[in-house]
């Protein structure tokens, strides 16, 4: 029998985490692997756990690690489990967590409060990093992210812990500072060589937006992003966007519009850059980057949590993001980067400078960009003319299948959070906006 534990998650991880394009209806998707045998060596389970985000497979990797004293399996499993769960809870709020992966017979797990989920994820990241051992057993060819480099996994775990700690900055600043400084002192990413990127070999395994490009090709650039980059003469505009087919101009589509303005066609709108579309069959998906870690550290320095110059970290973060495309031959030139960093539009002016540039750097990292905007309010987004809500959505609705299959626990979670099953406008616990 398949595991019917109701772990809330409404999309294949490739869609939610990397490209935000593929959705399904249920909350069980990532907790099931219908094609897998009941007992599989960890080196074969780990690729599935990383590539699809299957929580059942991740938990099995952890369990095998515990049972066989495979410390790297348990450590990596705890880290990746926290990565998947933080995407999950940042979409929905309260979800099954502590009761979600406790066996086949557990069909009605309770929902944990988001504050408790964050406590658990931060604890798992700390413990997982502490278990990693370069001299211990690894995963053969099964480590899709770091090819058995436990030092790299350690940096990833600490960097993810910084991301999660900063998420609590407005709701629990004391915990946020303590967790951030501990992760910072433990050591996160130190260069673009550490970036967590999920490679696609092409063929059957293509970058999702490239596969969509082959069939539809109607993804438009946001006018907010295009206008921001144009106003700052940002050289990344030519990477992020393609010129409009009709006149060669860079022109975004209004956020929240269901249709184009009168007189415009798709040919008048910039598509997402060809690095991800027409040339994107093997473009890697971004999980976490050195640039983001530097922006997090710049914010921590501005808050007085760490002893560092926030302006220097801010400039280093912008440069790191522009340089991360160098291996693919598509990023800005050194001259373009130098001119941009020296321009008045980029001069450091405190927290809002960090927030805006970090948002730009999160292009094509949809879930994290959304979480960033919800926490910081930067950039300010105007409500689209077709939006039938009181505000831009700040959470995902719970799928209808949960009401049918686990209604008692779901309803308790909804009552605890306010709003309703299909609520889109009640902020999450950490969202002070």
Which descriptors apply to this entry?
single chain, 433 residues, mainly alpha
Describe the model.
The protein has 433 residues and is mostly helical. Helix content is 46%, strand content 2%. The chain has 17 helices and two strands. It has helices at residues 13-19, 42-52, 55-68, 71-92, 114-131, 150-167, 173-186, 208-215, 223-231, 237-240, 290-302, 310-323, 334-342, 351-361, 366-376, 400-405, 407-417; strands at residues 196-198, 285-288. The protein has a two-stranded antiparallel ribbon. Helix 4 packs parallel to helix 6. The chain is globular and about 60 Å long. It starts with 12 loop residues before the first helix and ends in a 16-residue tail after the last helix.
In short:
By secondary structure, this protein is mostly helical.
List the SSEs and their pairings.
Blueprint: H1 13-19, H2 42-52, H3 55-68, H4 71-92, H5 114-131, H6 150-167, H7 173-186, E1 196-198, H8 208-215, H9 223-231, H10 237-240, E2 285-288, H11 290-302, H12 310-323, H13 334-342, H14 351-361, H15 366-376, H16 400-405, H17 407-417
Antiparallel strand pairs: 1-2
Helix pairs in contact: 2-3, 3-4, 4-5, 4-6, 5-6, 6-7, 6-11, 11-12, 11-14, 12-14
């Amino acid at each position: 029998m398949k595991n019917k534990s109701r772990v809330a998650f409404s999309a294949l991880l490739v869609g939610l985490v990397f490209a935000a394009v593929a959705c399904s209806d249920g909350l069980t998707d990532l907790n099931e692997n219908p094609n897998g045998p009941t007992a599989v060596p960890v080196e074969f389970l780990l690729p599935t756990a990383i590539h699809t985000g299957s929580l059942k497979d991740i938990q099995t990797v952890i369990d095998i690690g515990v049972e066989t004293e495979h410390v790297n399996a348990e450590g990596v499993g705890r880290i990746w489990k926290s990565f998947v769960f933080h995407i999950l809870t940042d979409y929905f709020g309260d979800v099954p967590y502590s009761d979600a992966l406790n066996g086949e017979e557990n069909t009605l797990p309770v929902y944990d409060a988001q504050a408790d989920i964050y406590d658990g994820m931060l604890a798992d990241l700390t413990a997982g990093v502490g278990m990693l051992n370069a001299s211990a057993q690894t995963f053969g060819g099964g480590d899709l992210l770091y090819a058995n480099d436990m030092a790299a996994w350690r940096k990833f775990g600490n960097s993810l812990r910084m991301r999660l700690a900063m998420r609590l900055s407005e709701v629990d600043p004391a915990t946020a500072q303590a967790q951030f400084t501990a992760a910072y002192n433990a050591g996160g990413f130190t260069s673009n060589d550490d970036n967590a990127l999920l490679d696609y070999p092409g063929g059957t395994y293509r970058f999702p937006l490239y596969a969509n490009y082959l069939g539809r090709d109607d993804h438009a650039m946001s006018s907010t992003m295009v206008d921001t980059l144009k106003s700052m003469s940002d050289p990344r505009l030519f990477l992020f966007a393609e010129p409009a087919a009709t006149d060669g101009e860079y022109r975004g589509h209004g956020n929240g519009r269901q249709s184009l303005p009168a007189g415009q066609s798709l040919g008048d709108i910039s598509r997402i850059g060809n690095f991800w579309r027409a040339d994107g069959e093997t473009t890697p998906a971004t999980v976490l980057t050195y640039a983001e870690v530097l922006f997090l550290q710049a914010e921590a320095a501005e808050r007085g949590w760490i002893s560092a110059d926030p302006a220097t970290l801010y400039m280093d973060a912008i440069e790191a993001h522009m340089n991360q495309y160098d291996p693919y031959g598509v990023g800005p030139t050194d001259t373009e980067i130098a001119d941009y960093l020296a321009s008045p539009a980029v001069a450091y002016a405190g927290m809002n400078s960090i927030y805006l540039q970090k948002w730009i750097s999160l292009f094509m990292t949809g879930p994290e960009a959304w979480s960033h905007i919800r926490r910081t309010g930067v950039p300010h987004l105007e409500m689209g003319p077709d939006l039938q809500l009181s505000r831009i959505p700040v959470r995902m609705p719970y799928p209808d299948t949960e009401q049918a299959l686990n209604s008692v626990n779901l309803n308790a979670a909804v009552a605890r959070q306010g709003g309703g099953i299909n609520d889109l406008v009640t902020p999450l616990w950490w969202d002070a906006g």
